[in-house]
Amino acid sequence: MNKLKILISDKISEKGIDIIRTLFQVDIKPGLTETELIDIIKNYDALIVRSETNVTSNIIHVANRLKIIGRAGVGVDNIDVGAATKKGIIVVNSPEGNTIAAAEHSFAMMLAITRNIPNAHNSIQKGEWNRGLFTGIELYGKTLGVVGLGKIGQRVSKYALGMGMNVIGYDPYINSGLSTKVGINTIKLDELLRNADIITFHIPLTNETTNLIDKKKFNIMKTGVFIVNCARGGIIVEKDLRDAVVNGKVSGAAVDVFSNEPIKKDNVLLGLDRIITTPHIGAATKEAKINVAIDVAEQVRDVLLGGVARSAVNTPN
Ligand code: NAD
Predict the structure, then answer these.
(1) pTM for this structure?
(2) Is the CB of 171 within 6 Å of ligand 1?
(3) What pLDDT digit, counting tens, does each position of 202-228 carry?
(4) Which domains does the chain have, with CATH numbers?
(5) E strand map for 18-88
(6) Mutate which of 93, 189, 202, 258 to test ligand 1's pocket (most atoms within 8 Å of Cβ)?
(7) Ligand 1 near 98 CB (within 6 A)
(8) Which of 66, 180, 223, 228 could disulfide-link to 200, CB 3.0 to 4.6 Å?
């Protein structure tokens, strides 16, 4: 009997591939263009991606054998879930596999920008010894505004409480009892923006959150606020963030995610000492890469063998 076929179109951990390799035919082809995927997707029963492959409606439209798309990670914004649902294809993700990695990166970025670590590093590499230039601020006693109190937002909040920060949060969809249990005071967005010394974002990119933070919102923030975005590009209007840093409203920003990735050399967030950037590496730890690959490979295996997926993000007929 012919084995069912799985296409893996981004690099995922071998530990995940080991789970499906013996049961199915597994083809690993990273870096395919949309046209190349359209050509071959009709041969596959399952597709596994990370964030590099854009699974567009054009690809899904011709994917007549496809039963499941697995996203080794959390965000499914690189997959046209609506098109998959219409076509009867289940989309699964790994909602918890990279929570710790993303929370730790958010905190690392918060410390890096408030203590000037990247700039101090660059300076000392040039042979300079400018201790006076890099005076930072302490997190202890500061108010952290956490926008989005899901898995990552709650974990970041716990780290912040451990550092002696006050934590205020905004999440219209969370049960307020839960946030109180964690020790977070949940308030309205504008109130959070007015009161926080540092604001960190942990929300998905949706119609509601696209351009959530623009010039008007920066204007109501405290002067000297710090911004951390390790959630999704597109939540903050990049040009407005740059302007707010240049005009001093924002003391510094730490950004891991961008509206268009990979970014172009002329991206407005580049070229300023007070905006530090990383290339979407929030989930890039050895542990998280293994976790998400195993999580998604297990679900693809289960669905292809007639079972159910534990983390489906849609409910196709
Ligand atoms: P989650 O689903 O557990 O939490 C998201 C929270 O956002 C939920 O509590 C939800 O109620 C809330 N939310 C939704 N819309 C909102 C709105 N309009 N205003 C305020 N809150 C809103 O997700 P998570 O695992 O905590 O991930 C959070 C974000 O981090 C996602 O965008 C995810 O893609 C991103 N992420 C980035 C990286 C990275 O590499 N930088 C890694 C992992 C996750």
Answers:
(1) 0.90
(2) yes
(3) 999 999 999 999 999 999 999 999 999
(4) 5-97+287-304 (3.40.50.720), 99-277 (3.40.50.720)
(5) 25-28, 46-49, 68-71
(6) 202
(7) yes
(8) 228
